Amino acid sequence: MTEKLHPYVVFLPMEKKDKILSAIFGSKAGVDLLRFSLRQGIDKNIYQKDLVKKLNYSNKTIIENLKALTALGVLNESMEKNEKEGRIIWIKAYQLTILGRWFALLLAEQQELSETEKAEILESLFRTYVKQVKRLAEEIGINKKMLEETFREEMKSTQ
Question: How far is CA 75 from its chain centroid?
Answer without folding.
Answer: 9
